[in-house]
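[job 0417] fold request received: ALDH-like protein
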Amino acid sequence: MSGSNGTIAEITDRIFDLFSPRQMGSSSLVNGVRSLDNAIDLANRIDTLLTSYIFASPSAGKYVSQFVAAPTIFVNHVPIKL
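[job 0417] inference complete; emitting structure tokens
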């Protein structure tokens, strides 16, 4: 889905070209994972995450947020301005 405020893309086949620096503007990439460690590995393959939004149980969200390299992490929350 794409609009004037940015793009939301579901990742289904793990093509990491979508994470390249060539991508301009705002984008949200949505990806289902097989395990918490899989989520951490996937997130940390990206050079620079500006923000990470984690939707999981509180304990799983806390675990993932401890190991994802991003300066800002939200667990089960999206700021109202977005």
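[job 0417] notes: The helical segments are 36-44, 58-67. The CA atoms of residues 50 and 56 lie 20 Å apart.
[job 0417] exit 0
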